[in-house]
Amino acid sequence: MARPAGLGYGALRTGVPLAALLPLRQRIVYVMIPAGLYLAAVLFIVFWPVPVDRPVQGNLDQVLSWLHGHGVPGCFDYGLVEWLANVVMFVPWGAFGAVVSAPRRWWLVAVAGMLASSVIETAQLLLLDARFASPADVAANTLGAVLGVLFCAVTFPAVVASARRHYGSSVPPLSS
């Protein structure tokens, strides 16, 4: 058992998950519970029997028409908004995955996001008549997972330094 050497980017080379820098109670409150709530929300959204945007689709069309009338290019349409929503939905996947896995394994978080998205789309195809399975959704979800990981890669050094300043010697021993 060894602590990460140095602060900042040096900690990325140690192979220590960011969550391991937190004492158990904070790990549960700041990582495990939010990750569980996030996963429950994703499952609710993707397995809802009808598209979840159906009740607001008319309002969204009106907003898009207004935006187009005020100079927003026509390519910013419903399809793009839906695709971006799929990207955004998986950013937390990438962030939570990066927080609980070693930096050297972050690429697996993106792969897991792609696999999870593929399972979701397959389940929608086979089980939900009113839902639409799409390879574009898998690509968008995977991009979201990658963006979540990249966010952690950029912010990880500052978070490591902050955890050490806040918790000091109470940061538990870390395995590499």
Structure write-up:
The chain is mainly α and 176 residues long. It is 67% helix and 0% strand. It is built from 6 helices and no strands. It has helices at 9-12, 24-46, 57-69, 78-100, 106-127, 135-167. The chain is globular. Residues 1-9 and 171-176 have low confidence and may be disordered.
Q: Please tally the β strands and state the result.
A: 0
SSE order in H/E notation?
HHHHHH
Q: Radius of gyration, Cα only, in angstroms?
A: 20 Å
Oligomer: single chain
Q: How can the largest sheet be summarized?
A: none
Mean pLDDT: 83
Count of alpha and pi helical runs? 6
How many angstroms does the end-to-end distance come to? 7 Å
Summarize the structure.
This protein is mainly α and 176 residues long.
Give structural attributes.
mainly alpha, 67% helix, 0% strand, disordered C terminus, 176 residues
Which helices and strands occur, and which strands form pairs?
Elements: H1 9-12, H2 24-46, H3 57-69, H4 78-100, H5 106-127, H6 135-167
Helix pairs in contact: 2-4, 4-5, 4-6, 5-6
